[in-house]
Amino acid sequence: MTKALEKPDKPIPLMNDFIRVMAGYADFDDVILTTLAELENAGVFESKCPEAEELARRVVGNDRSPETKGAFKTAMAKRPPESIEQLLTNALAKDPSAGGPSGTALVIRFNYAINRFFSLLNWNVGWEPLKRFLRDQFRRHPLERNVHTFVTFNYDLILDRCVQAVAKENWSPFTGYGFIIGWYLVGGGNDPVQFPAWVEHIPSDQIRILKPHGSLNWLVPQDRWGKTGDTGYLLKGGPALIPLGEHGEIRYCEWVEPKAILFSNNHGESMAVCIIPPTDPAKRVTLGFIEGTRCMERKAIEEADEVYILGWSMPRSDKDQRLLIAQAIAERERPISQVIAVNKHAGEDYFDDVRQLFGNVNVTKHNNGFREFVGGG
Fold first, then answer.
1. Measured CA distances, 241 to 20, 188, 263, 275, 277 (Å)
2. pTM for the complete prediction?
3. Measured distance CA(13)–CA(203) in Å, rounded
4. Alpha-carbon gap, residue 146 to 269, rounded angstroms
5. Burial annotation 92-113 (CB, 10 A radius, 16+ → b, else e)
6. Mean pLDDT by 10-residue block, N- to C-terminus, for the chain (377 residues)?
7. Hey, is 81 helix, strand or coil?
8. To 5 degrees, how large is the angle CA 128–CA 372–CA 153?
9. Which of 310, 318, 286, 343 is nearest to 86 (CA)?
């Protein structure tokens, strides 16, 4: 859905074109430049590109001349599409004895490159189609007597920011993610401020944004100050921090690595962005607030009258979420009244997959993109 809101000169990546889109920033942003060079240097790509390999070695070797960066940007942009999930899987499987950064270090670096990309994008998207969709939902199903649950596997904040703008006082980042976030950072500062106690009573039952894979504005403590696992930094449950703008609007974290934060009670933590890659159920992260998110997600699917699937590719690699949905559907007493699947030029097998996963119900198909679906052209 985020992709559907991109402007012609501000492309947004999908799973298979992350490298091409992020390469557009490689000549002027060192975080993205280094991430792409380290991925290339680690040999995680299925296709071989000698030109990109040589340029990556030069970049990693600290050749940051404009000529080298420009040539590397061009070479990476020409690479054939490859799934970023598969690239990171390949990174984690690489032989540690081969030298260079570990697979875990590559995953961590990529997590911060994603954060960097959306920070640089700076909300430069076409908001109107999403605003139109949200206004229509809240009009057709008034908040006074209906519950709207958004489940998103995107790390970005486009949906969150739009919900905050359209719903206004009916959604708060303090409680609207399904758990209480007790601290926040104001503007560009790094001194955490504690939310006053009354924020716990801000209504959040009518609109919830559930993000079981984490979010680029959730900052949580690292487990044992930097310990890592298969999917990046190991994290623990709290206290959670959220960065806000000067007027309370949500924003991206501008950090490019974890930071030590001293809370007002003199309790220090090393805080990191909370991103949880899709994993096998056996490797699933078990943070308390994520487990609570999953419980609310499952309950929402068990009780929903209508389900909209807005561009989710339903990847086979995300076995964990597919299992959760299947189990929730199995617990329903009656079929979902309406499943609306919105995609763009997806094959019939995609809609068959949706149909089967959601209990063999009839699926209303919209296959010309989100903008066309909401009447935005």
1. 32, 14, 10, 14, 20
2. 0.90
3. 34
4. 39
5. bebeeeeeebebbebbbbbbbb
6. 93 89 93 94 92 95 94 95 84 68 80 90 95 96 92 94 94 90 80 70 79 92 64 67 90 84 78 76 71 94 96 82 94 94 95 95 95 82
7. coil
8. 70
9. 318
Tell me if the bond preceding 11 is cis, omega within 30° of 0: no
Instruction: Report the alpha-carbon distance of residue 224 to residue 189 in Å, rounded.
Output: 24
Task: Tell me the pairing of strands 183-186 and 193-194.
Answer: antiparallel
Place of tokens 């807005």: 310
**DSSP line for 159-222:** HHHHHHHHHGGG--TTTTTSS---EEEETT----EEPPGGGGGS--SSEEEE-TTEEEEEEEEB
Q: Tokens at residue 98, please?
A: 């081969």
Burial zone of 241 (CB within 10 Å; 0-12 exposed, 13-18 middle, 19+ buried): buried
8 A C-beta contact, residue 207 and residue 143: yes
| DSSP annotation of 264 | T
Torsion of CA 223, 231, 115, 129, to 10 degrees: -120
The identity of residue 232, as a single letter, is G
- H or E segment to which residue 117 belongs: helix 103-121
